[in-house]
Amino acid sequence: GSNITAIQLGDVFKGADLKKIRDSGTNKLAIYGRGKSWNKSDVERLIRKLIIDGLLEEEMVIKNDMTAAYLRITKHSGEFMRSNSKIMFPIRQCTKSQLTVTVSASSKPMNMDLKNLQDECFAALMKDIKGYAGAIEVSAVSVMNPIAVRAMSQQMPTTKEAMLQIPHVTESNFEKIGKALLHILQEFAEKKATLQELEAIAEEEIDDESDFEDGWSAASTATTGGRKRKSVGSRGNSAKRYKRNGSGSSRGRYSARRGAKTARGRGQARGPGLVDFTQNKQYLADPLRYGSI
């Protein structure tokens, strides 16, 4: 039969719609899509259990300096199928609880843009890796570890030295496909730099607005406080203010001027008003007063 790896068998069991599966005809097998509702980790555990129990075995094949592990059926698998035996395989079921995450309005858009950019970078890297793997008829995992690919999409190294610092990236696989991946990473690194510049500008604008609001609030508080102090001073004891001066002469002059002003107010004639004129004693004694009016 055709060569198939454990990962490819998992894809068949999950019912993945991949070109290689369609071309090989494995999408017509009875097991195709039987584990569509399973978690990927459970599918991998099942295949690993079949290998441990001796129903399947892996054969290491070296091709084009690449090592691949292909699955083979053992003699025990035939006995197992004829005996109508069953495999007990525990699966843990859990209900997913919905989590509410609070994200600030200012940081959410930029964080989402960066996450989307990283996802696009990962997809572009995997596209080249799968294309290279398909050309030499090996699995994509054997070309480059998916963990390393995810780290590349997040860090976006732009040099060979930086790329080799990522775990699972070696000189061997870099010589095969590293240069092509590095070209993709350099393009996305430029997009990331532009995105970070826009984020920095947005943060500066937010800081400027905050400073302006704080300054306006402080100025309003100071102005309001000044008016209150003036109002309290006008209604308060003026004597306290002069008492602090410590000079009795100033207080005396102020009291003298105040008394003179009051005396003038009491002694000064206000003019011959109508009421004052008619109430005058001389006027009341005049028998012809009505005629004079």
Structure description:
- Among the domains are: 80 residues, Orthogonal Bundle (Arc Repressor Mutant, subunit A); 95 residues, HRDC domain (DNA polymerase, domain 1).
- The chain is 64% helix and 5% strand.
- Strands 1-2 form a two-stranded antiparallel sheet.
- A hairpin with a 2-residue loop joins strand 1 and strand 2.
- The radius of gyration is 47 Å and the shape is elongated.
- About 20% of the residues have low confidence.
| Topology, number of strands | 2
Mean pLDDT over the residues: 74
CATH architecture of the domain at 110-204: Orthogonal Bundle
Tally of helical segments: 14
Find the CATH superfamily of the domain at 110-204. HRDC domain
Stretches where pLDDT is under 50 for at least 5 consecutive residues are: 96-108, 225-269
Strand content: 5-15%
Give the CATH class of the domain at 110-204. Answer: Mainly Alpha
Largest sheet geometry: 2 strands, antiparallel
- The chain-level structural class is mainly alpha
Helix content: 55-70%
End-to-end gap: 142 Å
Rounded to an integer in angstroms, the radius of gyration calculated over CA atoms is: 47 Å
Physical arrangement of strands within the biggest beta sheet: 1-2
CATH topology value of the domain at 110-204:
DNA polymerase, domain 1
N-to-C SSE string, H for helix and E for strand: HHHEEHHHHHHHHHHH
